[in-house]
Amino acid sequence: MIIDGKKEAELIRNEIKKEISELKKKTAKTPSLSVILIGDLAPSKIYVKNKEKSAREVGISSKIIQYPKNVSEKDVLMKIDELNKDENTSGILVQLPLPNQISKEKIINAIHPSKDVDGFNPINVGNLSSGYKSIVPCTPLGCLLLIKQVEKNLSGKHAVIIGRSNLNGKPMAQLLLKENCTVTIVHSKTKNLQKECLKADILVAAVGVPNLVKKDWVKDNIIIIDVGINKVGEKIIGDVSFDDLRNKAKAITPVPGGVGPMTIACLLKNTLECFKAHQL
Ligand code: GUN
After folding, report:
1. Reduced to 3 DSSP states, what percent helix, strand and coil does the chain have, rounded to the nearest 5?
2. Pocket test for ligand 1, best of 92, 167, 168 (most atoms within 8 A of CB)
3. pLDDT of residue 176
4. Can you spell out the DSSP letters for 184-232?
5. Cα-Cα-Cα-Cα dihedral of 4, 173, 264, 47, to 10°?
6. Which residue has the CA at smallest separation from atom 3 of ligand 1?
7. Residue 79: what pLDDT?
8. Which residues line ligand 1 (CB under 6 A)?
9. How many Å apart are CA 245 and CA 213, to the nearest integer?
10. Ligand 1 centroid vs 195 CA: distance in angstroms?
């Protein structure tokens, strides 16, 4: 089975759109998302544009605040402070990566946890790892929703996550632990990647190495979620050798059309949640 992330994301966006329209009737208010984009990296510009377009389509007002790549850290921090205090801003996102003069740690810490639609602020990270209510990073949340489309009960399953980033690997591990999976995180210093991957009932690949996972790396009947977005020539390919595995896996996400659309749908979901929390 090929997991259709596009279709799943559309269902989520439709639900969000409906809820926003109902909330608008009741409160005359709608959610709003502010996206800070620094510099002119082509992928970041594309991601941000897609986020803004998708937000508008579901009724979230969205603005992009653009800075040149030599902007000072202080100017960005001042803008975040202003947005934190602004009653009309439900969610704040600073697109990563950042230029060298700007500390990612300071920026992420500056975003108020209740407006942190990325779920990167350590307060949200801490709440997630404690099993408390928190805003969950969009990509791993999207991955979990796709896994649960295939299998509702994940209890006791062995999940192997390739990659230990704050954006994907670590929050993914927390989410799968909450689902009672046995979780292994493997990374660039892991001794025998293949041996670890062969234990997986569920594999989430988020390393950015094109076609790393091959047929002899996994068991039959596995669920494979490919977070990789690697540009090879003119093509975008994942971390998993899709053609090798599409007939071996029980379910697998394609790239593109798998995790990507879910990331944006979950961003919209998080923005709506932030909006609702601020209305209480
Ligand atoms: N850059 C790549 N992925 C992401 C993401 O999920 N959020 C932000 N803010 N920047 C990113």
Report:
1. 45, 15, 40
2. 167
3. 98
4. EEE-TT-S-HHHHHTT-SEEEE-S--TT-B-GGGS-TT-EEEE---EEE
5. -110
6. 96
7. 98
8. 93-96, 118, 138-139, 167
9. 9
10. 31
Return the domain boundaries, the chain. Answer: 28-113, 138-260
Specify the length of the chain in residues: 280
Distance 95 CA to ligand 1 centre (A): 5
CATH topology for the 28-113 domain: Rossmann fold (3.40.50)
The yes-or-no answer on residue 51 being catalytic is: yes
Report the chain's terminal Cα–Cα distance, integer Å: 42
- The one catalytic residue in 51, 79, 157, 269 is 51
Q: Give the residue, by CA position, lying nearest to ligand 1 atom 4.
A: 96
- Clarify whether 95 is annotated catalytic: yes
> Residue 122: what residue type?
P
- Catalytic residue of the set 116, 118, 226, 239: 118
- CB under 8 Å to 27, separation ≥6 — which residues? 279
Residues of the chain where predicted confidence (pLDDT) is lower than 50: none
Annotation says 149 is catalytic? no
Alpha-carbon torsion (236, 240, 242, 246), positive or negative: negative
Tens digit of each residue's pLDDT (9 = 90 or more) over 137-178: 999 999 999 999 999 999 999 999 999 999 999 999 999 999
Burial class for 114, CB neighbours closer than 10 Å (0-12, 13-18, 19+): middle
185 C-alpha to center of ligand 1: Å?
21
Fold of 138-260: Rossmann fold (3.40.50)
Q: Give the other-Cβ count within 10 Å of 257's Cβ.
A: 15
Q: From the alpha carbon of 96, which atom of ligand 1 is closest?
A: 10
